[in-house]
Design a protein that fits this description.
Elements: H1 3-9, H2 16-35, H3 47-61, E1 69-73, H4 81-87, E2 92-97, H5 100-113, E3 118-122, E4 134-138, H6 143-150, E5 165-171, H7 175-179, E6 186-189, E7 202-208
Parallel strand pairs: 1-2, 1-4, 2-3, 4-5
Antiparallel strand pairs: 5-7, 6-7
Helix pairs in contact: 2-5, 3-4
């Protein structure tokens, strides 16, 4: 269950070059994870399910336009930024993390695969001066704190199939966490997008700017 898992859910959407890039991720992340542990040891053998395909749930919810500016906050080893960069080669992605060794992994993976539309930055998002069309993340922190860091970084407009905003990958019961923000979110259960049991409690959470 490798790159075929991606092709299963994005049939007729991937060029040969995109398939090649997705196929390279498995060995590259195993190699880098042995040097710099950015993915749990038990998860590395299920990279395509738990990291690559999980990241691409965002692509099922919002198709980004060419030229859209996206920020992946707390990108870790490059999820969701690296899979989204392969899926949408015409967008510009800034991958931000406060831990330098994780940014090094993102930079080296992108270089090896030939991904040129990711800028990996070692800083805190609050210190980054630029604004974006979309902010994405995967389970970085509770939503109220996350909005405090990022909502002012998102510009009004629409550079994809959803209006500009924040798109997060989350798991579990989110009712209380989202309620305390006072905002109205759209929630997309990933189990409605992908059939694998891993996604049973996973969600894509969207907030329009």
């Amino acid at each position: 269950m490798q790159v075929e898992l991606i092709e299963k859910y994005f049939p007729n959407e991937l060029s040969d070059e995109q398939k090649r890039r997705f196929a390279m991720l498995g060995d590259l992340y195993k190699e880098w994870n042995a040097k710099i542990n950015v993915i749990s040891r038990k998860d590395i053998d299920e990279l395509y399910l738990k990291h690559v395909l999980h990241s691409l749930a965002i692509a099922k919810v919002c198709r980004f336009e060419a030229g859209a500016r996206i920020c992946d906050v707390g990108c870790g080893g490059g999820f969701p930024s690296v899979p989204l960069a392969i899926m949408f080669p015409e967008v510009q992605i800034t991958a931000i993390d406060s831990i330098g060794k994780k940014i090094k992994v993102v930079q080296e993976v992108c270089k090896a695969v030939g991904i040129e539309n990711v800028k990996a930055v070692n800083c805190r998002v609050e210190a980054w001066p630029h604004r974006f069309d979309y902010v994405v993340c995967r389970a970085v922190t509770e939503m109220k704190a996350f909005l405090g860091w990022t909502l002012n970084k998102v510009e009004h407009g629409q550079r994809g199939t959803l209006p500009n905003g924040i798109i997060c990958l989350k798991g579990g019961d989110l009712a209380e966490e989202l309620a305390v923000t006072g905002k109205k979110f759209d929630i997309f259960p990933i189990s409605g997008l992908f059939e694998e049991e891993f996604f049973e409690t996973k969600k894509v959470v969207y907030l329009k700017k």
